[in-house]
UniProtKB/TrEMBL annotation:
Annotated Pfam families: DUF3419, Methyltransf_23
Name recorded for this polypeptide: Betaine lipid synthase
Top-level taxonomic group: Eukaryota
Segments traversing the membrane: 468-489
Source organism of the structure: Volvox reticuliferus
Lineage: Eukaryota, Viridiplantae, Chlorophyta, core chlorophytes, Chlorophyceae
Coiled-coil ranges per UniProt: none
Keywords: Membrane, Transmembrane, Transmembrane helix
């Protein structure tokens, strides 16, 4: 950049010089892309053997190969990231990249793991032109441990006679004798080695739910790829799963350069040598009708302290609980439960808890705190790509891949209840109560909190104003904020639960006023009530947060306890039937059910809860009608607390809290 007579930089000449260069680069890029497309669609694929056919197809486009494929082969990065994440603590490894082409996979892998951890990397390909590009790349990058081998993948074996990692990056579909190449790869795979595959695919006619395609998509894509001698049928993955144990997979689709609307299906698959008793499956349960497209709750809305007082949690327990925000499921493990099964029919709630579980397993405490304590993480994209996505199920990955912005805008302002909290905060600011909300959230003592609450002009007016004006005001607020739509999509209160509240003769506005006033007068938000502190501020505090976000709780979970958590997307009744439990937490689930379904649930509890086992639940009703059904099914039922007797707990959102013990001794 030059300078003018006044000494200031002259930008105009610089821009005039650089613009044509950038323009030429763009023109050159498009020209290279068109070269690749021309050979893909119209190129020659002639030759006496497979090597000759590969050369005739890839030779003319070898120089432009990498740039185009970077915008087409979407499965490469997640496959390499998933492999790297599972090999992060190893060294002196051997990596064989079969059909490695130009060596671009090695360059990409450097983003996820230090290449010096590999004793040797073998890039194996049958195409001479692609191998030449790979050799030039290895020399330019200074890769001393990378060896480019022009050979048939079906016969190649590393000199060390073993490999820690074997990868097929969009190459398995182009190797006609796929049985041979898979058999050969397995023959030198180390006992603790991994096989990573990324490729295009179509499902079988009858396949796993996460892979299943319609007949039209199967026919269309298989026909299109067959033009280039690429066989994307389900047979290759089926043979992989016959020879190896599936550890993890994702199925997705990606855009194609210069081809609008169409998205090509691809999969990522990680496997290892079979182990005894392994089973990996993923059920896809659709949301019930009218269910929101995301989660309702970002945290659990049942106070775990009263639960622990009556549940007698111990290492012999197998506990079934509703997922909600997942905090209480993790708390059960910290409190000593042997196994915890957390179930929800909303896949978004499962995705939230699964992300918390994987984050605990893969991240350090400070990263987990930023994600779920602050609700914001400045490096969420990097963490997700390298450490979280490689371990998430396909359903959870599909959910979070489109919603990482939650951790940029604030996790606790997302979802049904998060949005409601955000709207109420905005309303408070509009009414001039923004500072009051902050003072209430950070009151140093309970007495000061009470003073702030009672002196607020709205609360003072409702408690002491003229009855007619108060009645009109309360009815207006109820109509706007406490109608059935807001209560369902914002607070997770369905119609049946709303009817239970009305059956007790309590107007909904009085019910909510009782909840809020009880908390403000009896529970110190800043020091002990993380539920409402989060609502008022959009975050937790290190000394006022769920158990899994405290350093001691996190350490216990990371040390192995979190492995005892099963996250299931399923209907509660189906999961209840799956095994015998010693403890069951119904939360307020039965409030949502018709009485004949509640009767069936009571009978199922009687069969699936071990003698002496404990069932607990909360209800929006002072006397839930299904309590008698559970008692008649063979339980000793008692009410622990009721709202008409005073303050319930830190949430204070329910009218009653019940415990039932299965009759019969544990020895029976």
């Amino acid at each position: 950049m030059g300078a003018g007579k006044d000494g200031r930089p002259v930008r105009d000449n610089y821009m005039k010089r650089s613009f044509p260069i950038e323009k030429l680069k763009n023109i050159s890029s498009v020209k290279n892309d068109l070269t690749v497309l021309r050979h893909m669609w119209f190129g020659s694929k002639k030759g006496d053997d497979h090597a000759a056919r590969l050369e005739s197809f890839y030779g003319p486009q070898a120089a432009a190969y990498d740039a185009f494929r970077a915008r087409f082969l979407w499965g490469r990065k997640p496959m390499l990231a998933a492999c790297a994440a599972r090999l992060a603590n190893r060294s002196n490894m051997i990596w064989v990249d079969l059909g490695g082409g130009t060596g671009e996979n090695v360059d990409m892998m450097a983003k996820y793991i230090d290449l010096s951890r590999f004793k040797a990397i073998y890039v194996v390909d049958l195409c001479h032109s692609l191998c030449e590009v790979a050799k030039r790349k290895a020399k330019a990058k200074g890769w001393k441990n990378v060896h480019v081998v022009e050979a048939d993948a079906c016969t190649f074996a590393p000199p060390e006679c073993m490999a820690t990692l074997v990868t097929f990056s969009y190459s398995l579909t182009m190797i006609p004798p796929f049985h041979s190449v898979i058999d050969q790869a397995v023959s030198y795979l180390a006992a603790d080695g991994l096989v990573g595959v990324a490729d295009f695919y179509v499902s079988g006619k009858y396949d796993l739910p996460m892979r299943q395609m319609t007949w039209s998509r199967r026919f269309f894509w298989r026909s299109i790829f067959d033009i280039d001698n690429i066989d994307i049928g389900p047979e290759r993955r089926a043979y992989l799963e016959q020879k190896l144990e599936r550890v993890w997979e994702q199925n997705s689709q990606g855009s194609i350069p210069y081809v609008p609307w169409l998205r090509a299906p691809y999969y990522v698959w990680i496997g290892r040598r079979p182990t005894v008793g392994h089973a990996l499956h993923e059920e896809r349960v659709e949301r019930p009708p009218m269910f929101p497209p995301t989660f309702l709750y970002t945290q659990s809305w049942e106070d775990p302290e009263p639960d622990m007082e009556v549940m007698e949690i111990n290492r012999n327990d197998t506990v079934l609980t509703l997922t909600s925000g997942g905090c209480n499921a993790l708390n059960l493990l910290v409190e000593g439960a042997g196994q915890v099964v957390s179930v929800d029919c909303n896949p978004a709630q499962s995705a939230l808890l699964e992300l918390k579980k994987v984050a605990i397993q893969q991240l350090e405490f400070e990263d987990v705190w930023q994600m779920f304590g602050e609700g914001v993480h400045p490096r969420i994209d990097e963490l997700y790509e390298k450490k979280l996505a490689p371990f998430l199920s396909q359903t959870s990955h599909n959910f979070w891949a489109r919603r990482l912005w939650y951790f940029q805008h604030g996790l606790y302002y997302q979802g049904g209840m998060g949005k409601l909290c955000w709207v109420l905060q905005c309303l408070a600011v509009v009414l001039g109560l923004g500072k009051t909300v902050r003072r209430l959230a950070n009151a140093p003592t309970l007495d000061e909190q009470r003073r702030i609450w009672d002196s607020n002009f709205i609360i003072h007016f409702v408690k002491n104003g003229p009855k007619l004006l108060v009645w009109l005001f309360v009815k207006f607020v109820s109509l706007v904020l406490f109608n059935k739509a807001v209560l369902w999509f914002g607070g997770g209160v369905p119609g049946k639960q709303y009817a239970l509240i009305k059956a007790d003769g309590i107007p909904i506005e009085h019910y909510i006023a009782r909840t809020m006033d009880g908390v403000a007068e009896n529970s110190h938000v800043r020091k002990q009530n993380y539920f409402y502190y989060n609502c008022l501020t959009g975050k937790f505090l290190r000394d006022n947060c769920p158990t899994y976000l405290r350093e001691t709780g996190f350490a216990a979970l990371k040390d192995g306890l979190v492995e005892n958590l099963t996250v299931s997307t399923n209907f509660f009744m189906e999961e209840l039937k799956a095994r015998t439990y010693t403890k069951v937490i119904l939360m307020d689930h039965v409030d949502w059910l018709d009485l004949h379904v509640a009767q069936l649930l009571a009978e199922t509890l009687a069969r699936q809860v071990a003698p002496g086992g404990i069932v607990i639940w909360r209800s929006a009703s002072l006397r839930p009608p299904y309590a008698d059904l559970i008692q008649k099914a063979g339980f000793d039922v008692r009410c622990i607390r009721r709202a008409d007797e005073g303050y319930m707990d830190r949430v204070n959102m329910y009218s009653s809290f019940y415990m039932a013990r299965r009759k019969g001794s544990k020895k029976e």
